[in-house]
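Here is the promised in-class demo. Please do not try to memorize the tokens; focus on the logic of going from shape to residues.
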């Protein structure tokens, strides 16, 4: 006889939700030419490889399909000046990016195509998003840049509450004013953000035709590898702040973001519902995804929430993967039902037992 359990799992413990980390110095400088591995204040994407050496600094390389080397800062910046010295990759459809991204899905972009988006001369996309609202493509602008695949340039953002300025080698190429919008497609980016550096392939055959066209066409991998280089990053925050906190409720504006110089403990109980993933749960708990992942190593950004094959197969041989969400015992928030066989009672508690057959 096989015993089948229909279970409500409740794994809820008291947990501290620290605010997101900021910068306590008036100037932050990272010289990637002097590094041999990813610095501790940066995060390397899963399965990615970035090399570091003089004289070019961080080397991001795509050698085959599905590679996307990326790093991003552990710390957040809430306004200030961000400078990146970089040389971008060649290759049609290959996108090199230096992007500011917040947990509230505010975004500021420098994006480059390996063939200048199909243009006849050097070009870069400057773009912005507020609260994840993609809207129309008319927010983007394509200023000229001299041979970005062959030369290092300093790409800077002067990001302030009232306006945002993109500049190349000290020359302003675009200015955006804060229009005060709190809804719709033209919201001004204004929440603490991290700097993301890296590459991805928009010219892959699996990408949507519109994406491929935007990126300059399909990528010819017979000409791989494609490499981009970042020599250095310099950040001057508008105000030094050791940590930031989003109050609840949060109205989405910069004035509501709280600067804190101490650890803040918040309630962190959460009931997982169908369709949740790590990113959604982190946002609902007003913590960043890395904080969530640090205590829940299996947390994923896709709809599965966990890497089911790598984690669950150790414990059971049959899983209803469409309706099952689970955490290690360290997970701080859990409420979900599931059906499965051969459960390891060392790792979970079950509250209702039925369906013998």
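The designed amino acids, position by position:
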């Amino acid at each position: 006889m096989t015993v089948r359990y229909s279970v409500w799992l409740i794994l809820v413990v008291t947990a501290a939700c620290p605010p997101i980390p900021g910068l306590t110095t008036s100037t932050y400088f990272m010289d990637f030419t002097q590094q041999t591995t990813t610095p501790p204040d940066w995060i390397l994407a899963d399965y990615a490889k970035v090399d570091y050496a003089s004289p070019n600094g961080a080397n991001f390389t795509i050698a085959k399909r599905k590679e996307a080397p990326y790093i991003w800062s552990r710390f957040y910046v809430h306004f200030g000046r961000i400078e990146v010295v970089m040389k971008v990759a060649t290759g049609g459809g290959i996108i090199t990016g230096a992007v500011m991204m917040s947990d509230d899905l505010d975004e500021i972009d420098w994006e480059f195509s390996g063939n200048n988006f199909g243009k006849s001369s050097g070009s870069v996309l400057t773009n912005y998003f507020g609260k994840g609202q993609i809207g129309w493509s008319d927010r983007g602008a394509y200023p000229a840049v001299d041979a970005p695949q062959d030369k290092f340039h300093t790409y800077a953002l002067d990001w302030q509450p009232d306006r945002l300025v993109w500049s190349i080698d000290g020359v302003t190429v675009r200015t955006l004013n804060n229009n005060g919008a709190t809804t719709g497609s033209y919201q001004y980016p204004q929440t603490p953000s991290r700097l993301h550096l890296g590459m991805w392939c928009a010219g892959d055959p699996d990408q949507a035709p519109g994406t491929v066209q935007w990126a300059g066409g399909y990528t010819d991998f017979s000409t791989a590898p494609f490499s981009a280089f970042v020599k250095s990053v310099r950040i001057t925050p508008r105000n030094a702040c050791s940590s930031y906190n989003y109050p609840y409720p949060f109205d989405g504006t910069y004035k509501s973001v709280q600067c804190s110089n101490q650890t803040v403990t918040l309630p962190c109980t959460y009931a997982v519902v169908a369709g949740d993933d790590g990113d959604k749960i982190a946002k609902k708990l007003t913590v960043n995804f890395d904080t969530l992942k640090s205590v829940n190593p299996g947390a994923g950004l896709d709809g599965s929430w966990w890497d089911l094959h790598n984690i669950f197969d150790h414990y059971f041989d049959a899983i209803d993967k469409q309706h099952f969400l689970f955490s290690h015992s360290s997970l701080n928030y859990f409420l979900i039902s599931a059906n499965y066989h051969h459960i390891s009672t060392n790792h979970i508690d079950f509250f209702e037992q039925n369906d013998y057959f």
